[in-house]
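Write out this protein's structure.
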Amino acid sequence: MTIHNHPERPEDYCGTTYAAKLLGLSVGTIQTLVEKTELQAWKTQGGHRRISMQSIREYQRRHNMMSTLPEGRQGRLKVLLVEDDAVTREMMRDFCTRCDMPVDCTAMSSGLEALIDISSIMPDVLIADLNMPGVDGFELLRTLRQNFLFKRMTYLVISALTADEVESRGSLPEGTIFVAKPVNLQWLNGFFTALMSNRHADHATGSA
């Protein structure tokens, strides 16, 4: 794998999972493209691969692919779903594609993946489980809450933990919305609808 100058800004690179979503390819294919130097990438000291967003744009242009990068998704609600249970993750991702609102959902299986790619995605909504191996939901939320870039992001936690269990682990950052598992999908549809209505109202107020 070729070593390139590392971009200084997190939004200039992404992880393998998000690159696969952007290009509509499998993670394995992305890894192959990196090894063939069709995508520019490098590894961190911790062994996590970073892929240049510029090289993704160039790959799309070379192959006449429609851009799926963040700037091409105006008017859609951008959701980042972080859930380590594969069944729950796929169920919720499938729901996001079928719900009444125009939702663009990126699903990841770990908090670490989310931390790597969230600056590239810049979601409107983070939906996270709490009990996850490695970087769990508690650490993920606390880390993001300390970053001013994500101050306006909506934080939704979906967990099987009880209120007492959450409190015993340090509670959740102020403003976090908590919903018990299993999530009511009709409620989630209404939640997305309310968020989109608020966005439209904010835009109308800003342009007045």
